[in-house]
Amino acid sequence: MLRKKELPVQGEFVIIKINKVTPHGAYCKLDEYGIDAYLPISEVSSGWIKNIHEFIREGQQDVAKVIYLDTTKNAVDISLKKVTQKEKKDKINSYSAEKRAKAIFDSTAKLAKKENAKEEILSKIPASITTYHELLTLAYEGKDPLAACGDKVFKDAFYEAAQKNIKPKSYTVAYNLEMSVTNPQKGVQLIRDILKEIASKGNITRSLGAPHYSLSSTDSDYTKAEARIKSAEVILDKHASDVQYVLKKVNK
Hints:
This protein is α+β, with helices and mostly antiparallel strands. It is 34% helix and 27% strand.
């Protein structure tokens, strides 16, 4: 975070390290805030727990959800069982991206000999930008998030680092296609022609062994990737009198 918050908010996902396990719960440290939190045994797992040590251990790092917050006492209760696998994965990815972006910011300041000016630079970044990762991404996109920082040496160095370190995000949409010919006179050649036409729209086609095929499309814009697959459906409908097909999205 560009501007450190004293406490998380209710419902926030946080990175934790379990410091001490007791029969009734565990005392944890919130890595991003440097404060303690309590994990009740009832929030460790959705199943019945006979021995808490079978579920968690001291030194374990994990993702938890803030379920109780008392700002007057700086008291925080967290839950492991209320975190889905997707939420856990997303939090770890965002946490890793933030750590990497901060390291790039710090190393840029060092290379530009601006280590003593970091706080001043940060104070001039718009309040709407809340994370180092967001700052790095905006710099990569050429949106000049450091316009007000007043330090051209640091700004140019940071923007150069953004171009070197950010990989353009891409989305892949994948479908399974089951297709068979109803007109025996056209046979295998029709299948080949249809797949070739689908590929001409920017899709990748692959045979999984007739009558099964895979279609995929990759783009920096999810809607464009999806639209290419939809163009394949238009092509298939055009040949509906000669083929039967089932097109099903692959959930990742």
